[in-house]
Amino acid sequence: MAEVGARYRKKRLDRGIKARADTLFAIASYKEILYLLLPRALPVIALLILPIMLTGYWGKVLIYACMFGLLALSWDFLASCGLFSLGQALFFGLGAYVAGTLSYYLHWTPILTMPVAILGGGFLSALLLSPVLRLRGVYFAMVTLMLPLLFMKMIETTGLLGGTHGLSALAPFPNDWVARYLAVGAFIIVLFIFRRVISEDYGLVLKAIRDDDRAVMSAAINIYWRKTQALFIAGAVGAFAGAFMTHHYQFVGMTVFALDYSILPLAASALGGPGTFAGPALGSMILVPLSEALRALGGLRIALYCFILIVSVIALPEGVFHYIERKYHQFERLVRVG
Amino acid sequence: MEGETLLKVEHLGKHFGGVQAVFDVSFVLRKGEFLGMIGPNGSGKTTLVNLITGFVRPDSGKVIYRGEEITGKRPYTIAGLGIARTFQMVRLFYNLPAYKNLIIPLSSSRVKKLRGGEYGERDDVAVDLLDDMGFERDSFVPYKLAGSLPHGYLKRLDLARAMALRPDLLILDELFSGMAMSEVASTLPLIEKFHEEGLTIIMIEHRLRELFRVVDRVFVLNYGEKIADGSPQDVMNSEPVKKAYLGIEVEIK
Prior knowledge:
A: three-stranded antiparallel β-sheet; two-stranded antiparallel ribbon; B: alpha/beta
């Protein structure tokens, strides 16, 4: 309601729709159907068309964006039950190495390694982090930050699983089309499943654990078991991204545990607006292509990239997605005062 | 006072640093009993509740519920056995609609088991429960965000959250604190009704007049120690209680 001049002020109005409740949509006209459907359908259609339009270098960027998008979604899922992760690289790396190991030593095809990596990665993530589930806030975050670094150093010093050289000449995907559509498809599916799950009773309990874990405990719900389940789900999604990149590059090395895979999903969530899944997804779709476009700037790229991030966090702390959502549902007009 | 023993507390003790919050407290609670627990501020009432419900681990002593030791078990395990509690400072999910707050206990395995096959839509069950608590079903109140409700409603919502578990033992930690007289007057009959239906209740309360009217037995704590345990009449007349709790009032007489 900012003042504009002395005699006008800005008035915000909710865009009217006849009846809207949690479960009820009264659809009265095409206009309203479109109003509800467009924000969901447009991104999906765009994502399905993009793999046709983008080949070569930008096709790879699209895949990259989807993988970081999955890591960001996995981050947001953990955050929704109060687990603040600084170690998405752990999930990514575990999936990558499970797939890589199976492919290198046992010569399994991606059709087999991918599901095993997803389940195995989720299981290992839950197993490794379940002892620290009782730690809250920054302590949990610290452990998640350390674990990928621990794995990286272990592989480097022991020389296990290919050591510093990594495992190469792994089985690739049949062709680029499969790779691009698998990436985009997984990204869309996870996004919509997460958005659905979080609004169901299951997600309600997860969010309640974040808000007040004692109240949830007094409601006879084993919060540690629920958090373990959340870790498995988030870990499995992260592991998919890792396994995918292993087969896409036909190589897995210790860089899969690098800090980039932890920080970029976090930055994407901050930019897009955490808590909605659409926000982190949007954030990674902005951030990854942007950082690729800025590659020409060389070293300055990182500085500019940090600058954009800081500005967005300060100027738009709610995140891009919340801002767009608000603008979509409201319109502003000037009204005369007095 | 007949009936089987539901809860038995034996020599329970807990200290925080140098403060002895609860010291050698023992008591027995029979099925269907309505126990009032009183004591001056800081006398260890809430700590005792936390010890029974597993939120705090005792240094010494035992808690036995239905013949089974539950000392040091996790809060959710104890709640799953049928001990529900409310919190002195209400603990709710403020950014959820009121009725959605009840989805949390309703999705616990205890409730699933108890309701068995005839489990309805959770949302309907939640609204039914709130209706029983005086949230008129046809008004907007059950569907409003919990954060926007007045304090009296929040207390009753917390009570509803505990009752959603279908408990066998209900522990009310100062349910009436901060409630208006009219709200107390409308909530008290609810609790009496639960008691008449066979629910065992422990009620911590500072409003003695309301408390003494409904309870069978009163239990008095002072500096973490039990100083009296008996019928409301006996407790009111016992010397240590007069000294510790009602002292000033007695001297004026």
